[in-house]
Design goal:
The chain is α/β, with parallel strands linked by helices and 374 residues long. The protein folds into 2 domains: 4-55 and 341-371, Urease, subunit C, domain 1; 58-333, Metal-dependent hydrolases (TIM Barrel, Alpha-Beta Barrel). It contains 10 helices and 23 strands. The strands form 5 sheets. The protein has an 8-stranded parallel sheet with strand order 8-11-12-13-14-15-16-17. It has a 6-stranded mixed sheet with strand order 3-2-7-21-22-23, covered by helices on one side. Helix 8 runs antiparallel to helix 9. The chain is globular and about 60 Å long. The mean pLDDT is 95.
Length: 374
C-alpha cells in the first residue's frame, strides 16, 4: 500500500528554490510537490522534521567502496548491496559504482556481477581507466593502462554493454574513432589522468567530452605558458568537472578559486574507497584518507554530506549551492531530470539533515531507509 507523507517544519531545498513554512508531499515512490503547510491534503501523514534541512538525495558519480568493502576486490552482488546500504545511510541515494584501472577480466567480471545483481541505488558503472595516460596514472598500475583500440573497447565492454554509464579517459591518447565508438554506446566520457595541453583540452567538447574527473588531481600542471587541462577547464564554458572536497586531494583555497571561475559547472564526488588488503589496490587508511602501501594517495574517506559541509564551512559556499553541487548538477550531467530535485514527478529520494550536518532521515523511493530492503 502506498503511503502519503508530508514533511513539514523544515527548510526545503529544491533546485534553485528554498521553501520555508512549506510541506514536501510524497505519494508512493514519487514527489507530488511542495505546498504551504496550510494546504496539506487531509489524507497525508504529517511528519515534523523540527527545523532540519530537507533536500534531494545526494548523487555521487565516482565511488569505489565503503568501509571495508572495495567492489573491485569483492566482485559479488553482496558487496554491491553492502555499499548501497552504507551509502543510503549517508544520504547518498544514487551513485555510479566505480572501478579503477584493472585487468580486462576484472572489468568484465564487474559487468557480469553488476548486471546480475540488478542494483537499485547504483545507477551504473564508472570505469576510471584503462585508457589513461601513464604519465598521470596516480595510483593506477602502469602495466594495466592500455590503448583504446576497437578490439580493446569491445572486449572491455563485452559483459557490461548497458551498465557502463561513464568512463574516464585520457583524450589526448584516444583517437577520434575510439571516442565515437564509446559515445555510440551511450557512455559519458570524462577527461582524467591526462597530460593534455590547453590546446588539446580546447577541442574536447567538440569531440564529445563534456566533463573532467577530479579537477586538479592527476592532470597536467597549470603553467603560465600553458594552463594545461585544469586551466582550460576553468575557462571553457562547455566543460564541467568533478572535485573532491576533503581538504586532502585539493586545498580548500583551490576549491574556492575553482568554484569562483566555474560556478555551476563544478560538482562534487567523493572518490571514496574501502579499506582493502588484497588485490591490486591495497588501500590503507591514514587519518582522513586512503593511501597505497607506498604512500601514494589512492582515495578519500569522504561522504557526500561531508563534502557539502566542507564546502559550506571551509570554502564559504552557500548551503543551497553546495547542495546543488551534490544533487542538481550531477543529475543534469547524466540527463536525469527525475533525480537531484524535489519537483512534482521526481523520484522520492530525500535527505533530511540538521544544522550540524548529521543525517536525521533518508527516504529512498518513498520509503524510509530503515524500511528499505536492498
Amino acid at each position: 500500500m502506498k503511503t502519503k507523507r508530508a514533511l513539514t517544519n523544515g527548510k526545503i531545498f529544491s533546485g534553485y528554490k528554498l521553501f520555508e513554512k512549506s510541506a514536501l508531499l510524497i505519494d508512493g515512490e514519487n514527489i507530488v510537490g511542495i505546498v504551504s503547510e496550510n494546504d496539506i491534503p487531509a489524507d497525508y501523514i504529517v511528519e515534523d522534521v523540527h527545523g532540519s534541512n530537507v533536500c534531494p538525495g545526494l548523487i555521487d558519480l565516482q565511488i569505489y567502496g565503503t568501509g571495508n568493502v572495495l567492489f573491485s576486490s569483492e566482485l559479488t552482488a553482496e558487496s554491491i548491496r553492502s555499499i548501497e546500504e552504507d551509502l543510503l545511510k549517508q544520504g547518498c541515494t544514487s551513485f555510479y559504482l566505480t572501478l579503477a584501472t584493472n585487468t580486462l577480466e576484472i572489468f568484465k567480471d564487474a559487468g557480469r556481477v553488476f548486471n546480475a545483481a540488478k542494483p537499485e541505488v547504483a545507477l551504473g558503472l564508472h570505469f576510471e581507466g584503462p585508457f589513461l595516460n601513464s604519465k598521470k596514472r596516480g595510483a593506477h598500475p602502469e602495466e594495466l593502462i592500455i590503448e583504446a583500440t576497437d578490439e580493446a573497447i569491445s572486449d572491455l565492454l563485452s559483459t557490461a554493454e548497458n551498465s557502463v554509464k561513464m568512463m574516464t579517459i585520457a583524450p589526448e591518447l584516444v583517437s577520434d574513432e575510439a571516442i565515437k565508438n564509446l559515445l555510440a554506446r551511450n557512455i559519458l566520457l570524462s577527461a582524467g589522468h591526462s597530460a593534455a595541453t590547453a590546446k588539446q583540452t580546447a577541442k574536447f567538447y567538440e569531440r564529445g567530452i563534456k566533463t573532467a574527473t577530479h579537477l586538479w588531481n592527476a592532470m597536467s600542471p597549470f603553467h603560465h605558458r600553458d594552463v594545461g587541462l585544469p586551466g582550460e577547464i576553468l575557462l571553457d564554458k562547455n566543460l564541467s568537472a568533478s572535485i573532491i572536497v576533503d581538504g586532502v586531494h585539493v586545498d580548500y583555497e583551490t576549491v574556492a578559486l575553482s568554484k569562483k571561475l566555474m560556478g555551476e559547472r563544478l560538482f562534487l564526488i567523493t572518490d571514496a574507497v574501502g579499506a582493502c588488503e588484497k588485490g591490486i589496490y591495497k588501500h590503507v587508511f591514514n587519518q582522513d584518507h586512503y593511501e597505497l602501501p607506498d604512500g601514494t594517495l589512492s582515495g578519500s574517506s569522504l561522504s557526500m554530506l561531508q563534502a557539502i559541509k566542507n564546502c559550506v564551512n571551509q570554502v564559504d559556499i552557500p548551503l543551497d549551492e553546495a547542495i546543488r553541487m551534490a544533487t542538481l548538477y550531477p543529475a543534469n550531467l547524466i540527463g536525469r531530470s527525475d533525480l537531484g530535485n524535489l519537483n512534482a514527478g521526481a523520484i522520492a529520494n530525500v535527505l533530511v539533515f540538521d544544522q550540524g550536518f548529521e543525517v536525521n532521515q533518508v527516504i529512498f523511493r518513498g520509503k524510509s531507509v530503515s524500511a528499505v530492503t536492498i
